[in-house]
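seq as requested:
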Amino acid sequence: MTEQPVFGITGWKNSGKTRLVTRLVAEFTRRGFKVSTVKHAHHNFDIDKKETDSYRHREAGAVEVALVSGNRWALMHELRGEDEPGLDDILARIAPCDLVLIEGYKREGHPKIEARRTASTNSEPLAPKDPAIIAIAADHPVADTGLPVFDLDDIGAMADFIAATVELKEPDSVG
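struct tokens:
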């Protein structure tokens, strides 16, 4: 798959996935790790605005448009009828880092925590049908599972669990 450790957060819509991922990114970053993320979207999205030059480049037919500034760069790839790339293809494009956190990708085989909230659009547990789900994070009591269960707000414990699971090495201390 990839050289860098990969760990996922999965769950139904409104289960708290994005909030959990952002809080884990902040926690691992605070601990000195370099973290990247991959977010799977089930809907059409656009990160560009109609009045920009890069939008015009894509509209003219460019397959890829790189947008570069002194603060950040982005590479947009138009599929133009091609199949959606697999997770491995996306991970191959990620720059080296200490950890890649993945949001979504319910059907992929990387280790995952299932996020559950009472406000979720679906309360059917995913873990019983997905052996890659190795823990649950919930805002309510969870019974009938042999998996570790974390409070959805216990970010430190989940970060420790993820670090141990992927055998995350401590970041190099600077001088």
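The first strand starts at residue 6 and ends at 10.
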